[in-house]
Amino acid sequence: MFNDLKPFTSSLKTTNIHVVTGDTNSGLTALGIGTVKILRNNKTLTLKNCLYIPCLKCNLISLLELFKKELTVKREKDTFTLTLQGKEILNGKIINKLMISPCTIPTTLLTGANDIPWHERLGHPSLTFPKLLGIEADKKDCLICKTSKSHKLPFKHHFEQAFYPLDSIHMDVVGPVTPPSVSTNRYFLTIFNQASSFKMVKLLKKKLEVFDQFHAIKKVMENLQNRTLKRLVTDRGGEFVNHSFKKLADDCGYTHIMAPPETPQHNSFAKRANCTILEKTQFLINQANLPKSYWADAPKLDRLRTFGCRAVIHNLKCEYESKMEPPGQPGILIGYNNNNTAYCIDINASRSPNTETYTKTIDTSNLTTKLQATDAAPQAYQTLDTTEHPPSPPL
After folding, report:
1. Domain 169-276, second-level architecture
2. What is the mean pLDDT of the segment spanning 120-142?
3. What number of other Cβ atoms are within 10 A of residue 168's Cβ?
4. What percent of the chain has pLDDT over 70?
5. Less CB within 10 Å around the terminal CB: N or C of the chain?
6. In UniProt terms, what function does this protein have (predicted)?
7. Residues 194-222: pLDDT tens digits?
8. Please, what sign has the CA dihedral across residues 65, 67, 71, 76?
9. Among 221, 171, 176, which residue's Cα sits nearest to residue 201?
10. CA-CA distance, 103 to 85, in Å (whole number)?
11. Statement: residue 345 has pLDDT above 70
12. Which of 35, 45, 270, 73 is nearest to 168 (CA)?
């Protein structure tokens, strides 16, 4: 009977044998049975049908079982020698009427080969569970556990700090957006400057327009900052991984970093900017109760007014067609145009957005007009001349 799994050389057969010793009245339970090899005086002793009892205080060998195999016991004062079939197998001292023989386990048996079978039979538990059963199993590399219990590890920020504009630009494409915008745009390109946290959005009808938009924006930014682009960070979408982007990177000398698949953390700046842009767009659409097709019409900081507020357009036709018609026509502010010098007004009567440069706006939430909930795309914008008719101040 052994209290350790290390001496066992093969997989144990599960058993539930009740054993009573002189040290305890309640008895002990053997969890397995197998073959044991021990080393004594440079000789290996093989014992079969050995019981594994985790709660046993010390290992015990039954002399009755050895007597069946022609065991000879020789005693000299306080020492003894056991000879089995003419070969000495054990020797030691007699202490408290017990024959005690210190033995060691052969080095080749110290691999703990039985840990893995027990681990598999118990259903790949954690290391604490075998200890509750009295099984001391060392931690082993289990491929099944690693593949079945795999989890995402915390992602550590890896981007180098950008101190100047254009040191690091992050880009991403969002879409297709349903429904399409008033101008039939289905995508938008997010451009994020890491140094200044400046965000820029470009509307796209197709993903094929990404390279042309980026190339044009790159020229404008480099001209304004008097600096060149150092690093571009994108994902591995087909709109970024193509010959045009590769050739531009080689010609201009900047580094194009492409995030691995299914890892938005590697392009986190652009992804976070996408969330912010989409959330703000939803806020404005819900606030003004406008159709979803107006998602591409966003307010600008320059000459900012409340998105969806009531507005009055001065109608030039009334000056020469009818003297009795009111010159003002009501509408709703839905955006800006002409490099932010004109307001884009949705006229209720025609449901056609018109861009007016001489518009009166009523900037108050209480007077916001609610349109019907429809996603039908209005007609194209009409841009009026701004040279002779400057914008009117807000009411």
Report:
1. 2-Layer Sandwich (3.30)
2. 70
3. 24
4. 69
5. C
6. The aspartyl protease (PR) mediates the proteolytic cleavages of the Gag and Gag-Pol polyproteins after assembly of the VLP.
7. 888 888 888 888 888 889 989 998 999 88
8. positive
9. 171
10. 20
11. yes
12. 270
Single-letter amino acid, residue 358:
Y
Selection from 199, 201, 211 nearest residue 181 by Cα: 201
| Torsion angles phi and psi, residue 51, rounded to 5 | -90, 140
- Mean residue pLDDT of the chain comes to 73
Q: Strands of 71-76's sheet, edge to edge?
A: 71-76, 79-84, 87-95, 98-100
Query: pLDDT tens digits for 161-172?
Result: 888 888 888 999
Amino acid symbol at 170 = H
Residue 255: CB partners within 8 Å, gap ≥ 6?
Answer: 230, 231, 232, 249
Which whole-number Å values give the CA distances from 93 to 63, 73, 74, 78, in the listed order? 15, 13, 12, 6
Q: How far, CA to CA in Å, does 183 sit from each of 203, 205, 214, 348? A: 9, 9, 20, 18
Task: Render the burial of 84-99: b for 16+ CB within 10 Å, e for the rest.
Answer: eeeeebbbbeeeeeeb
- CA dist., res. 193 & res. 162, Å (int): 9
